[in-house]
Amino acid sequence: MSDDFEPKALAFLCNWCSYAGADLAGVSRFQYPPTIRVLRTMCSGRVEPLYITEGLKSGFDGVFVFG
Amino acid sequence: MYTQKRMRVIDRLLDMSGIDRRRVQLRWVSAAEGQLFANYIKELSEELAGLGPFDASKFSLRLSAIESVLNSPRMRWLIGIDRQVTERGNVYSEKIDSARFEQILQAVCETEYRNALILASLRSGPKTVRELCAATGLEVREVSSRLVDVEKMGAAELHGYVGADPKFIRTAA
Amino acid sequence: MSEKSRIKSSTGAVMVVGGGIAGTQAALDLAGAGFFVYVVESSPTIGGVMAQLDKTFPTNDCSMCILSPKLVECGRHLNIRLMTMSEVAKVEGEAGNFVVSVREKPRFVDAEKCVACGICAEKCPKKVKDAFNEGLGYRKAAYVKYPQAVPLKYLLDEENCIYFKNGKCRACEKFCPTGAIDFNQKEKEHRLEVGAVILAPGFNSFDPAVFDTYGYAKFPNVITSLEFERILSASGPFEGHLARPSDGKEPKKIAWLQCVGSRDSHSCAHSYCSGVCCMYAIKEAVIAKEHTKAPLDTAIFYMDMRTYGKDFERYYDRARQEAGVRFIRSRVHSIEPAAPGSEDLSIQYVDEKGTPRVEVFDLVVLSTGLEVSAQSKALAQKLGIELDSGGFADAASFSPISGSRPGVFVCGAFSGPKDIPSSVMEASAASAASAALLAGARNSLTRSKTYPPEDPSVHAEPRVGVFVCRCGVNIASVVDVPAVRDYARGLPDVAYVAENMFTCSQDTQKLIIEAIKEHRLNRIVVAACTPRTHEPLFQETIREAGLNPYLFEFANIRDQDSWVHQGEPEKATEKAKDLVRMAVAKAAFLEPIEKLQAPLIQSALVIGGGVAGMNTALNLSAQGFKTYLLEKKEQLGGHALEIAKTWKGEDVFAYIEELKAKIAAEPNIEALTSAELVEASGFVGQFRSTVRAQGRERQIEHGAVILATGAEALAPSEYLYGQTDRVTRWHELEKLFGQQPEKLDSARAVAFIQCVGSREPRRPYCSKICCTSTMRQAIELKEKKPDLNVYVLYRDIRTYGQREDLYTRARELGVLFIRYNPDEKPVVSTDGKEKLKIRVVDHVLGRMVELAVDYVNLASALVPEGLGELARFFKVPLNQDGFFLEAHMKLRPVDFATDGVFVAGLAHYPKPLEESIAQAGAAAARASAVLAKPWVEVEPIVSVVDQELCIGCGMCELNCSFGAIRLHEVKGKGYRAETISASCKGCGVCAASCPQKAIDMKHFRDCQILAAIHAGAHGR
Fold first, then answer.
1. C147 within 8 A of C100, measured Cβ to Cβ
2. A53: containing domain
3. Which of C548, C586, C830, C870 has the maximal Cβ count within 10 Å?
4. Rounded distance between C-alpha atoms, residue B106 and residue B69, angstroms
């Protein structure tokens, strides 16, 4: 494992909560690493478990679900 | 809350498959918690970096087994019914204690996962019990009893012999 | 009201003054019911005090999260015109036809041009104390009040701007990329015609600097509760880190002092109770503990703990028992530095037994009360609205939202201190009253937009157009926008790519429309700021070009990319490419979605013929809707028939008679007495109920239903109730004295016992109205017979709001108050002779006292009864105490998660008459928003069930929180699930939990999400 390995993760954000929280991080300019690729859903309840395995199968190093 | 229940099942299945469960994470962030969101991403990214790259090709058999489990009506039914029977009670208004439910869930996860693993490895052609052991990493006894299960479901059947060893094949359906 | 509603030439517009939560709610209700609304707000943004709060009690919801969607909706509503930085100068005319003069102050920023990039604030050299953060932080002279502000437009603060002071600077103008700064803007005057005016100017937090004893002006670590909200807030001056102002140190001990400026007879303070401080102090104490890893000691110094609202008592119990918040019943004498030069503070107080004590804290929070501001008082004077002794708009109990001038309505904290749900209820009620007044003018001034027919080419091969936004320098300074643009050109299905300086600007909208036409684009992707604020704008644009609005996808490359990876431009560019690729991949699978319209029966069923039900029915009928009013007893009136007077002394009997007469005369109302609901089915727009009225069954079809079945007074099994006539409950004693005055003549002492059956483990809620009722009865007894000994045995006196005056009056008249502990309840006994004996431990004296009394009146709990069946019929939930559980405790106090079903009155929670009336109005407003349209409009992001895959197991129905999916019988197949689109919220829980994977979500289809996942990973 090299130190400069930069993982890539799939992130599910729900419209009214975490997506808004992520936007607020932007508005406030809170910096974080460019790891995630975001998919917006109406609610974290939409996140079908199979999307998570699909994410791993497709080549993401991890999958984050934000409710 | 449904999300939480589902994620717990994913965790179990990842554990069984040997994929580090830290690769899949659930966090709660409200619309006012910009800082928290940034912190989570930092923290989770570092953790993920520590785990190193994920080589999906090494886990393709196991991932497809997990997928079969998550696709199976039995598993999906169990996940869906969780809150009903543990929080609200079933049609007879009996509540199932959540620890007991967890046990059931764990048992079902295990059998379904192993069945799926066997079926997934049969996809590449008929195999003997020993070959299945090698492909799945399960013990002989486990493979045999799982085979009985999948045979009962009509998902696999006997397909001739290699010497004295029986060979099994996925049924077309 | 019904006569007024028939004024032919009234104006179909309403002005709402004040854009806080109450004003916002009133505006949304009215605009939804077919009226044009002007929202006049004196500050640069709507949102009010609620935007400043961190969390809200009793659910601990993040305040901004629940408020923001309402503000956004209000800001972009076609029939709401926001007039910020504006004040009402004059109101002429009369109800139905007012002409209002509004003065609008200059913003010095052209709102049409401002894209809220924030560069003006960045470049502005002038720092000033930020009032939004209660002076705890700084902002620039060019600023926006807070990041979620609506409208999101910057402004220059004339008082502090350097250019306005000495004629030099203009840095903002130099750097503004859109040329939006305009130093020449002047004050404007508008004359607007409206049919009604709703006043919702809100409150000011009491300024404790007038008190020397609290040292607010002297000690930096003595702060107000609103300052503490900002400290707790993640978007506040300390980013949510618990820190005290003097040295930024994390406090280990925090004290809250209650009733600062309230329940205080000093001339600089207010005699009324502010009604909300007990709850917010508990909330702040609980939340503060969550903010720190180190143990935090929290103590609340109070006189009476007033947790009288729904779920408040439980919140109090949990704070005490689980969070370990200390509650100290006391009187605070003064605050001093703990030692010379120390920033810590010592509180000198007297405990309940009268013992002086001292305790040292790191931080002291003053729970400051609510008061009407000088501006609001001036406004009231301008409009001719009378104020009460506390400075609040005077409103009668029977018309709690009517100002003293016809056609002018009042709501929120302007008409009395109150919490958010009560304000929201009144706001809705005020909108219902306005709608009834102007029913004839409904839809006369509202606008609707027409769009060209949709282009059928969408079903052909996808031709995706991608618009990458530079957002001035906001995106382009980090992300290599040209590189992303070129990259997008090479993606599958992409037919056109453009790069824009500001994709949201007016002229770019034209460019997008032209590009769609010229390049025959049938899917659009915009890579820019965030869909949360801008998706509706672009959806609107593509509709104008003949594309279905759902053929649009957003790639968030600003808020979630350029702004958060400022130091890593290359990686941010890579991320932007990935996000664009994901959006394009999803876009290729997008499909047009038709707006759904479900049929609607424009009538309502009101269940329960008490005050709440009657008022709901009267308002709905005045608005022109056929209403069925169902009452199980032989006559209308409910429990109000038992009550002689309101706490303000108004005659309830006469009021009920008036209501009954109005209902009898109203052709739109069909009142069914001796009636009960046998069965009900259906959903919003199309309910079908079977009613048995006077022995005969009939079917009623209705589009909405209001549940107003009330509550019952508990018949206690303690204190000898039912064993002797001398022990009575509620209004039985006054009735007895009314009928047999000689009994009062011969009586020497009477006792009231409070909290009988309430605030106990079995019923851990406060019945809310008992203290006030007892107080009124005690006062009347004392006034009638001054030498009568009147005792009130209580736990906390909860005469909230202006009801506090009754408590003061009762004490002045010599009513004796004895506090008892629930562990040592009073014991009522009789020796078989005339009198009753009460033994109770007096907690001030600390010893047992014995009272000889002639009568004991019990304030017994109000309990919900028989709501379970209604809950099942209409698929709505009950809370743990058996009352109906509304959709959201704070902001949707009369709605249910299930559409088309509403609640009013005591079935929701115990409440006084005036609050029931307000809630009835609110229920009518919410129901009329459904009924005023020709059909039920449905957000089309709903679930779809594949009838072939479905096996009818019912898992979806079980898991749906909105009653939006159900099993129906299919001939020969058994049961199959079907979506009730009218109720579906599109959350997708059903799809993710369907064992057969037979359910998919429109606009978030499996194939669309999977395509995006694959595309996202593809870059590896």
1. no
2. 9-66
3. C586
4. 12
Reference C899, options C882, C887, C916; nearest CA is: C887
Distance of alpha carbon B20 from alpha carbon B3, whole angstroms: 19
- pLDDT category, B168, cuts 50, 70, 90? confident
Residue C240 forms contact with B (CB below 8 Å): yes
pLDDT in tens, C860-876: 999 998 899 999 899 88
In whole angstroms, give the CA distance from residue C662 to residue C669: 10
How far, in Å, CA of C210 to CA of C391, rounded? 18
Share of chain A above pLDDT 90, in %: 60
Q: Per the domain annotation, does A44 fall within a domain?
A: yes
- Report d(CA C510, CA C541) in Å as an integer: 8
Q: Which amino acid is at C599?
A: P
Give kind and range of the element (H or E) at residue C524: strand C523-528
* Beta partners for residue C689, in sequence order: C680, C700
In the predicted model, is pLDDT for residue B7 greater than 50? yes
In chain C, pLDDT over 70 holds for what percent of residues? 99
List the chains bordering chain A where 3 or more Cβ pairs fall under 8 Å.
Answer: B, C
pLDDT, average across residues C410-423: 97
CB distance from B19 to chain A under 8 Å? yes
For residue C902, give both structure tokens. 């509403």
Q: Cα distance from B50 to chain A (closest Cα, Å)? A: 7
Q: pLDDT category, B138, cuts 50, 70, 90?
A: confident
Residue A4 domain-assigned (yes or no): no
Residue C801: predicted pLDDT: 97
| Closest residue by Cα to residue C17 from C89, C95, C71, C120 | C89
The amino acid sitting at C659 is L
**Would you state the pLDDT for residue C574?**
96
Under 8 Å between Cβ of C620 and C627: yes
From B97-101, C317-321, C677-681, the region with the lowest mean pLDDT:
B97-101
Q: Which among C533, C1009, C1010, C1014 is the top mutation candidate for probing chain A, defined by the most A β-carbons within 10 Å of its own β-carbon?
A: C1009
Residue C202's identity, in one-letter code, is G
- Is the pLDDT at B95 greater than 90, yes or no? no
Question: What domains are defined for chain B?
Answer: 2-19+54-170 (1.10.10.10)
For residue C622, the SS3 value is: helix
Rounded to whole angstroms, the Cα distance separating C365 from C367 reads 6
Q: What is the ipTM of this complex?
A: 0.96
Asked whether B13 and B78 are in contact (CB, 8 A), the reply is no
C989 to chain B, any CB pair closer than 8 A? The answer is yes
Over chain C, what is the mean pLDDT?
94
pLDDT at C3 over 50: no
Indicate the Cα dihedral angle B57, B60, B63, B69, nearest 10°. Answer: 170
Residue A42 located in a structural domain: yes
Total of domains in chain A: 1
Cβ pairs B/C, distance under 8 A: 54
- Is A3 a member of any domain? no
DSSP code of C394? Answer: P
Contact A46 C1017 (CB under 8 A): no
End-to-end CA distance of chain A: 31
